[in-house]
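Lecture notes, part 5. Sequence design as translation. It can be helpful to think of inverse folding as translation between two languages: the language of shapes and the language of residues. The source text, in structure tokens, appears below.
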């Protein structure tokens, strides 16, 4: 009996299986997007989430998942800055649209605020994306305070 570890093109482990017929998978062959790697049946795969394929062998020291804006590439977690910045802009756009009413001539504004207060806040939201080059997590964004 054998175990088969299916590896994605970026080296991440997709799944492991023990086929009922040892001839169903060929070591090094591609199945869908994954490459099959045959290992002995008694291989301990309980910590498979720590494994990755480095192109020639399995490594068992994969760093913990770095977060939703990271992808596994070149045997490490890499920040997908475009995706992160898109998420920040999307959250900013929600905040902006939720305050559109404050700019209407007949708007009933929250107590102790003026149209000018809201204009300053809205401009700060628009300017926010000018200062996010070093941000690596959406939770690190310093949002302006509503008036």
């Amino acid at each position: 009996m054998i175990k088969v570890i299916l590896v994605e093109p970026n080296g991440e482990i997709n799944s492991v299986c023990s086929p009922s017929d040892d001839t169903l998978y060929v070591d090094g062959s591609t199945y869908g997007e994954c490459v099959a790697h045959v290992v002995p049946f008694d291989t301990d795969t309980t910590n498979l989430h720590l494994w990755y394929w480095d192109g020639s062998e399995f490594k068992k020291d994969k760093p913990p998942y770095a977060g939703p804006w990271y992808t596994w590439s070149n045997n490490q977690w890499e920040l997908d800055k475009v995706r992160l910045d898109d998420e920040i802009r999307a959250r900013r756009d929600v905040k902006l649209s939720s305050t559109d009413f404050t700019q209407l001539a007949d708007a009933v504004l929250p107590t102790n605020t003026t149209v000018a207060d809201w204009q300053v806040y809205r401009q700060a939201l628009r300017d926010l994306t000018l200062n996010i080059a070093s941000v690596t997590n959406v939770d690190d964004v310093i949002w302006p305070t509503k008036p």
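The translated text above is only one of many valid answers, since several sequences can fold into similar shapes. The longest helix spans residues 81-97.
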